[in-house]
Amino acid sequence: MYNYILKRILLMIPTLFGAAFLVFFLLRLIPGDVCELRLAGTGLYADPAEIELCQEKLGLNQPMIVQFFDFLIGIVTFDLGESMWTGKPIFYEMGLRFELSLQIAIMATITSIFIAIPLGTISAIKQDTWIDYVVRTFSIAGIAIPSFWYGILIVLGILIFTQSWFGEPWMPPLDYVPIWVDPWRNLSQLIWPALATGYRYSAVATRMTRSAMLEVLREDYIRTARAKGLLEKVIINRHALKNSLLPVVTVIGIEFAFLMGGLVVTEQVFNLNGLGKLFVDSVMSSDYAMTQALVMVVVMVFVFTNFLVDIMYAWLDPRIRYA
Amino acid sequence: MAKLLEIQDLQTLFYTSAGTVKAVDEISYDVEEGETVAIVGESGCGKSVSALSILRLIANPPGEITGGKINFMGQDLLQLSDREIREIRGRDISMIFQEPMTSLNPVLTIGVQLTEAMEFHLGIDTEEAENRAVKWLEMVGISEPRRRLKQYPHHFSGGMRQRVMIAMALCCEPKLIIADEPTTALDVTIQAQILELMKDLSSRLGVALIVITHNLGVVARYADRVNVMYAGKIIESGTAHDIYHKPSHPYTLGLLHSVPRLDQPRKERLKPIDGQPPDLTKLDNGCSFRPRCSFLIDKCENHYPALEQVASGHITACWEREKLIQEHR
Ligand SMILES: Nc1ncnc2c1ncn2[C@@H]1O[C@H](COP(=O)(O)OP(=O)(O)OP(=O)(O)O)[C@@H](O)[C@H]1O
Ligand SMILES: [Mg+2]
To answer: pTM of the predicted model, to two decimals?
Structure first.
C-alpha cells in the first residue's frame, strides 16, 4: 500500500512538468499582448516606447526559454509572482476566489454523491419499473439542462417564496465571507450554486452508478450471496455497492476537479467572484502570469484528485491494494 | 431411506425477445437423505436452471417457475414466502457454483464471506462464527485457516477457492448441497481432489448432494443415482450402475461414447454425438432428440415418449428402448 502511494506521488511530477510546458507555450500562441492591452485598451494610441518599457518590466522581452525557467522556478518555490494586469501578487488575487471555488466544488460534489449513489442504486434495483423511469428522467434532465438555468430558477424561486411567505423577498447574501468567519452567512450564499451544479453533475454519476450496479448485480458472487439466503439489503450494501462504486469514484473525481476551474457561467448567475471569472478575465487581458498560475492550480487539483481517486480505488478493491 | 427432496413436474420458462425458452420442462426426481444424485447433460439442456429453480434463484424477469412442486422436508418450496425461502437458502440447502474465480466476492475477505451466513442463519456472534469458519476451512484442507480468514479471494488458486466454496456451503450444516459443475473450471488432477473431498465430507456429515455435470465419465464413482437431461427434460434416470451398464436411451448411449470412462478400459475411440441440441424456443410435440437419433421411427415425429420403466428404479423416455437394449447388451 505504501509503495502504491509513493508510486502515485512520484508520477505526479512528470504530469505537472508536462502541464507547465504546455500551458506556457500554448498561451504564447494566442495573439495579444498584455502591455498593449493595458496601455491602449481603451482604443487610444499607445507609445511604442512605453509598451517596450512595460514589457521590460514584466520580463516579456527576455528569451522564451529564460521566461519558461523563471516560471518553473516560481512553481517549485511556490512564488507565483504578480499579476501582469493588476500588478498585485497572484496569491493575493487568487486567495479568496480559490477558497470560494473550492468550497462550491466540495459542496457540489457532496450534493452530487448524495443524489447519485442512492438514486443510481435504486434505479438499478428497480430496473424497468416506474421508479427507474423517474430517476432516469430526473438524471437526463440534469444533463440536458445547463446549471445556470437552475441557478436562475433557484434565485427566482427563493425570491417568490420568501415574498409570499414572509411578506418581503429575501436574497442570498451577495458578498463572500469565509465559512469560518460566518458559517451561516457563508452557507446561505453558497448552498444554492452548490445545489444547482451538484444536481447537474449528479446526472452523470447517477447513470454511472446505475449501469455499474446493474452489471454487478449480474455477477456470479451476487448469485452466491443470494444462495446464502442473505437479506436483499445486505446483498446490495455489502456485496454489490463496493464493487459498483469503482467507476463512479472516477467520474466523481473528474467532476470535482472540473468544478474547480470551470464554473464560469454559474458564477455569473449567482454573482460569485470565483476562479472561473478570474480565468476568463486573465485570458482576455493576456495576463500570462495569472493564466499560467491558474492553469497550474487547476492541474494540481486534477492531479491531487486523481491521487485521491487512486487511493479510493485501492481502498475499495483489495486486488489493487495488494498488487 | 426417507425422501429429502421431491421434485414434481417442475417447469421453468424464460421469456425472451426470441421467444419463450422452455429451459426446464416438467422434470421430476427425488433425492433421499444423504444420497448423491447426478444430473447429466450437454451444455444448455437446463441443468443449472433446474438447480437454481430449487432455491428459487431464477431472475424474474426474464425467468419464471411456471409449474410443479418442490417438496423439501414436508413443505413445498414454491409456496413459501420470500422470507421463508431465504431461511432455507444457505441454511438447509446450499449451493456450490461452477466458476470459483467469479463466485466469491473480490472485495470481501474470505472470513466475511464465510461467517456472514452463519451469523445470519445460526444467530451466533462474529467471534464464534470465525472459530467455526476456521474449523470448516481446516475440514476442507486449507492450511493456516486463521490467517486465511483475513485474505481476499485473489490470494487463492482456483482449487483453493472451490474448497472455500465447499466450506461456505457446509458451514450452516445443511441437509442438501447442490453443486453446479463444481469442477468444470479446474485442472483434471484438482477436479478429482475436489470431488473426492465433496464425496468424503458429504458422506461423513450425512449431507445429500445434487451434482450437476456434463461429464458422464466423472460421475460414475460418486453418484448413487443419475438423471440424464436433454432439452429441458429428464430422458433417463437410474442408478449409476444402470446408466453405465444398461443405458436405455440413445442420448445416454451417445454421452457414454463421447466421454473417457474411468471405470472401464478404453475399447474404442471417443465419438461425439452428431448435431446440436435443439433451440429451446422451438420445441414441438415430437421427441426433441430425433434429429440426432439413429433409432428414429415414425412415431417420434409427433409423439414425445413418456418415461417408462425398463427395470426397477430405471426409467427412460424412448419408443425404441426395447430394440436399443437388445442391440447394446
Ligand atoms: N437468464 C436467461 N435468460 C434467457 N434464457 C436463459 C437464461 N438462463 C438460461 N437460459 C436458457 O435456458 C437454457 C438452459 O440453461 P442452463 O444454464 O440451465 O444450461 P446448463 O445445462 O446448465 O448448461 P451448461 O452446461 O452450459 O451450464 C439455455 O438454453 C439458456 O439459453
Ligand atoms: Mg450450467
So the answer is: 0.83
